[in-house]
Design a protein that fits this description.
The chain has 198 residues and is of the alpha+beta class. It is built from five helices and seven strands. A hairpin with a 4-residue loop joins strand 3 and strand 4.
Length: 198
């Protein structure tokens, strides 16, 4: 069974086995961002046959509606970033009882914690925002008028493509032993494994 144990402090008998830090590992940083860009292009191409992107710039309903769509896209993108990290933080708090912290770097926003998470917990923490907001935004894309589709869909694109780092981390966790503990400061993840007794 995958480890679901979470701790406020690192238990005795664990040793560091790896660290994931996109700010320090430039090769990984560019690989993740190129992956995100590729996902973005695929998602745009997939939607174009169904809803022309020209609907985003349609002014037939007047300048006010056009302005509102542009404002909604800009504001929605900012709010989405905050909500994405908030979901990470909510699950961190739920699994550990430790209050998370939030911040921004020049490259991204983040949620972090001083707690240590088991493998299963950390995978849920990583994937929760893209799943939850993916469903919410998907419903909105289907429910709103066509003239608003691209406003919401661009936020959905940010949701899916922006989760490239979370997807990579999840993949990495799946390749590691089942009894790992992960400490995610928000800017770097350090993975520990229980030392084998000699």
């Amino acid at each position: 069974m995958i480890c679901m144990k979470n701790y406020e402090a690192l238990p005795d008998g664990y040793e560091k086995i790896c660290e994931i830090d996109l700010a320090k590992n430039k090769k990984l940083f560019w690989a993740v961002n190129l992956g995100a860009f590729a996902v973005m292009l695929v998602m745009i191409a997939a939607a174009l046959p169904f809803v022309p992107i020209a609907t985003l710039f349609d002014m037939s309903q007047g300048f006010t509606v056009y302005f509102l769509r542009a404002l909604a896209l800009l504001a929605g993108s900012v709010v989405y970033i905050i909500l994405h990290e908030l979901v990470h933080g909510i699950f961190m708090k739920r699994f550990s009882g430790v209050k998370p912290h939030y911040g921004f770097t020049l490259m991204y926003a983040y949620a972090g914690s001083t707690a240590y998470f088991g493998k299963k917990s950390y995978i849920i923490i990583s994937l929760a925002p893209v799943v939850i907001w993916g469903i919410v935004l998907g419903v909105l894309c289907a429910a709103l008028p066509e003239s608003w589709f691209w406003v919401v869909y661009f936020i959905q694109i940010a949701n899916i493509s922006g989760a490239a780092g979370d997807a990579y981390v999840t993949y990495k966790m799946l390749t590691l032993p089942k009894d790992i503990l992960v400490n995610d400061t928000g800017v770097a993840m350090t993975v520990y494994v229980k030392e084998e007794k000699s």
